[in-house]
């Protein structure tokens, strides 16, 4: 973990939670690695009860797990769990895509999210690619107009970002992240039929799922 750093607070616990979450998304920890409250307290210069609150919040979010009597650990995933996550993800995203397409919802936020990919530069850090990917898909779900589905999807996004942080492997299947998502965006805003849009979106999600399943199976 990084050297001890002072935190400017929203509340100290919230700031510590955010810092720890960002460290997880950046791949600073291995799957299954132990995260002791005392370690978090020492690294962030905060009281142990405050560190415990931060750790517990990430347990609640599904990022960490803790068995009775043991310290928290970074969550691990198996192929079946990944398939289940993407099964739910596909239900939410396809519903949002259909709703946004049918209603002609404004796509300004989706267009703005595309800028995250153009800002990545050459050989970007994995965490930045995952962040841009999450921003794009979150914006699409928001365009679908269901606040409840947005809330559900936010939890899934955290799980997926953690999954993407664990494998140190290049993103995608040969295309750049921008090209992959630009294709989806153009179909969403253009004259493509609903069937064409759904097929492309399912293919994109299935490729992401299979990439992660393959990596976990090989590991």
Structure notes:
This protein is mainly alpha-helical. It has 2 domains: 12-74, Orthogonal Bundle (Arc Repressor Mutant, subunit A); 79-218, Four Helix Bundle (Hemerythrin (Met), subunit A), CATH 1.20.120.530. The chain contains 9 helices and 3 strands. A 3-stranded antiparallel sheet has the order 1-3-2. Helix 5 packs antiparallel against helix 6 (126-143). The model has no long low-confidence stretch (mean pLDDT 88).
Structural class, from secondary structure content?
Answer: mainly alpha
Query: How many discrete domains?
Result: 2
Q: Determine the CATH superfamily of the largest domain.
A: GntR ligand-binding domain-like
- Average per-residue pLDDT, rounded, comes to 88
Number of helices: 9
So what's the overall shape? Answer: elongated
Here the CATH topology of the largest domain equals Four Helix Bundle (Hemerythrin (Met), subunit A)
DSSP summary, beta strand count: 3
CATH first level of the largest domain: Mainly Alpha
N to C succession of SSEs: HEHHEEHHHHHH
Strand order of the largest sheet: 1-3-2
Low-confidence stretches: none
The N- to C-terminal Cα distance equals: 23 Å
Bin the helical content: 55-70%
Biggest sheet features? 3 strands, antiparallel
Strand composition percent: under 5%
Supply the CATH architecture of the largest domain. Answer: Up-down Bundle
Query: Rg, please?
Result: 18 Å
